From TrEMBL:
This is ferroxidase. Gene3D superfamilies: Frataxin/CyaY. It catalyses: 4 Fe(2+) + O2 + 4 H(+) = 4 Fe(3+) + 2 H2O. GO terms for biological process: intracellular iron ion homeostasis; iron ion transport; iron-sulfur cluster assembly. It comes from Daphnia pulex. It is an enzyme of class 1 (oxidoreductase). The keyword Mitochondrion applies. InterPro entries: Frataxin, Frataxin/CyaY, Frataxin/CyaY_sf, Frataxin_CS. Keywords: Ion transport, Iron, Iron storage, Iron transport, Mitochondrion, Oxidoreductase, Transit peptide, Transport. It is found in: Mitochondrion.
């Protein structure tokens, strides 16, 4: 027998001896859950596209930020990209970590300024679902504040300006 329990954001299943095969439950949209929207989104972007877009995004961010920091602050900051993890060390301002989350098809950001965020690739942008902010917009704002000058990281691949 299949038992299911609904909570605000999760669905849990437990199976007891039964010959009934597992079945898919209807969309959780009727319960006002964002998880059904997330599931629909995951089905829309093929893994190959996600891999290409996320890797090119990280590589482009690495190159752009490294060039920006190297030009003005050659010895104070460090930028590195390894195995899908971009690390930006900004001395006393903290460390940014931006990484691929392949199972979720997201890019995760850990910011010393704004905290953790998870970005979905929607309409050619990496978007934070809670406030609809694009990844490049947030990085522009935070790096401009940290460096005390306007910074424009607008060359993210596949993103429209």
């Amino acid at each position: 027998m299949l038992y299911h329990t609904f909570s605000k954001k999760t669905v849990s299943y437990s199976y007891r001896k039964s010959i009934i095969p597992p079945v898919l439950l209807p969309s959780l949209n009727q319960f006002g859950s964002e998880s059904s929207h997330r599931a629909e989104f995951l089905n829309e972007i093929p893994i190959q596209i996600y891999e290409k877009v996320s890797q090119e995004t990280l590589e482009n961010l690495c190159e752009t930020i490294d060039h920006l920091l190297e030009e003005k602050y050659p010895s104070e900051f460090d930028v590195s990209l390894s195995n899908g993890v971009l690390t930006i060390q900004l001395g006393q301002h903290g460390t940014y970590v931006i990484n691929k989350q392949t199972p979720n098809r997201q890019i995760w950001l850990s910011s010393p300024t704004s905290g953790p965020k998870r970005y979905d690739y929607i309409n050619r942008h990496w978007v934070y679902s809670h406030d609809k902010t694009n990844l490049d917009e947030l990085l522009n704002k935070e790096f401009s504040y940290i460096l005390n000058e306007y910074v424009a990281i607008v060359s993210l691949p596949f993103c429209e300006s």
